[in-house]
Amino acid sequence: MDSRGRFIRVAVVDRCRHRFICGRDKGGDADYRSGVPMSAVRNLSWRSGWWLGGWLLFWIALGLIDGVQIYAGLGLEGRSVDWFTALRRGVESHLLWAAVGMGVLWFAERCPFQRGRVGRSFGCHAGGCAVTFAIYSVVYSAWLQGQPSLKDGSIFVFGEALRKMLVLYPFNHAVMYTLIVLGYHAWLYNRSLRERDRFEAELEAKLTRARLDALRMQVNPHFLFNSLNTIAALVHEQPDAADRMITQLSELLRVSLDNTDVQEIPLERELGIVERYLDLERARFGDRLRVHLRTQDGVMRALVPSLILQPLVENAVRHGVEARAAGAEITVTARRLDGDLELTVRDNGPGLPQTAPTPPREGIGLSNTRSRLTHLYGPRHRLDLVPADGGGLEVRLRIPYRTPPG
Length: 406
Description:
By secondary structure, the chain is an alpha+beta fold. The protein has eleven helices and nine strands. The strands form three sheets. It has a five-stranded mixed β-sheet with strand order 4-6-7-9-8, covered by helices on one side. α1 packs antiparallel against α7 (170-234), α4 (83-110) packs antiparallel against α5 (118-144) and α9 packs parallel to α10 (310-321). It is rod-shaped and about 115 Å long. It starts with a helix and ends in a 6-residue tail after the last strand.
């Protein structure tokens, strides 16, 4: 597939990313909530063991607080009640709320407040509040059946207790129901934001990897095209040289393919690829091409983008050797500098034009290199083209110095 096809595919992925983050896709709100797939939201289940344990402890704590208030309130009214009875009565009512609250959460999960469905959600929760209030009133009245009242000592009768519950406590129940629903939605919103951030980070990483792969795959056809043109030019005039170049090209392609599954490789391997490429060019130019590789001690393990030096060296060969009948020298240097790795490729060719009204247009190799560096390192890199001392051009590449783990 050509480069246009690859970039069309990346653009399509970018549009998919926009739909994913904004929560717009087939199925609408039924499939997405806050930009996160509903399948991911369901994985944020409130039914896990630790959550249920915390939920139970929360209501027990509220029940104990209520029991303390019961004890203190009756004491202020001159009525005596023991601590155990007051705490038990408070915990009993709130343990029932813990059970009914699970039903409230069930309603909250199935009737989320969503844009365009607010009225429907309110109607759903109004019904849910009425149902849970009826259940709470019936169950608690049955539980109080036969127990003495803490206020006057009278024995609770189911019918009388139920009538009092239905008349005196609907507002309290509605407030509690609303607090549980709001608490659930706050928890869900927080968790869905975290999930969306995680999904977005993963998708961004995949998109970056896709762009990097597309950029890197441009290098191989470009280099292969140039190499085949060279072989075609020699096949009739210098068949032995063309034969050697075919062998060296196959070896270079084999080494290049060995690195297709990684974005970064040690500098030592990268220089090995450059050496094989230079062997290919030496077969073409012979003594006209002179190359010097200079590396500082300890930098050979540094990680560099795979195939990052080959297009720079290729440009040096084309603008240095091909432009000079007497041949040219190319120097590749690697060193550590202020915590970074600096790579330079220098030739003694004509260099940059001094009087051009606009900067010369960069070819595929150099523009590709800039794009890959931007995706890999962001602002933590530099790629400069400067006139070399004594004439020619020097390309300076600076990236963070890192080594493989272990």
